[in-house]
């Protein structure tokens, strides 16, 4: 398998920036990893806050809840403040993933072209 395909698979399946590290473009790789991890941190933090809010509301009700009531509590909690930050973090993570894949492919192809011997006609 070519280095460009390996780099693309690393960036697509492991973490954005992993393919750049594989191709020894450390600055790009660590930048993509840093932004991706920051976006993941925001998403996980918001998810934990949402789960805590819903669990507190369930505990306050005291009685048994059915799935529809729990769904309603989750919908109410997710419409509160902070949803813009979640949207930005989600778009940032998706953007990093796309940039990581495309850039890894481009860098791998450029590396492959630079190492190929010139053909003599």
Polypeptide structure, described:
- With 121 residues, this protein is mainly alpha-helical.
- The protein is built from 5 helices and no strands.
- The protein is rod-shaped, with a radius of gyration of 22 Å.
- The model has no long low-confidence stretch (mean pLDDT 88).
Characterize this entry briefly:
This protein has 121 residues and is mainly α.
Feature tags:
mainly alpha; 5 helices; 121 residues
What is the fold's blueprint, element by element?
Blueprint: H1 3-13, H2 18-22, H3 26-61, H4 67-78, H5 83-115
Helix pairs in contact: 1-5, 3-4, 3-5
Instruction: Note the main sheet.
Output: none
Domains, number = 1
Instruction: List low-pLDDT spans.
Output: none
Helix proportion range: over 70%
Helices, by number, come to 5
């Amino acid at each position: 398998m070519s280095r460009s395909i390996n780099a693309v698979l690393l960036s697509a399946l492991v973490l954005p920036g992993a393919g750049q590290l594989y191709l020894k473009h450390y600055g790009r790789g660590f930048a993509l990893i840093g932004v991706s991890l920051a976006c993941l941190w925001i998403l996980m933090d918001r998810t934990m806050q949402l789960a805590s809010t819903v669990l507190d509301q369930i505990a306050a009700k005291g009685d048994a809840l059915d799935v529809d009531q729990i769904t309603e509590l989750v919908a109410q909690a997710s419409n509160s403040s902070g949803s813009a930050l979640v949207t930005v973090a989600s778009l940032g993570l998706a953007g990093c993933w796309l940039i990581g894949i495309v850039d890894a492919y481009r860098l791998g192809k450029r590396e492959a072209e630079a190492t190929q011997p010139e053909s003599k006609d």
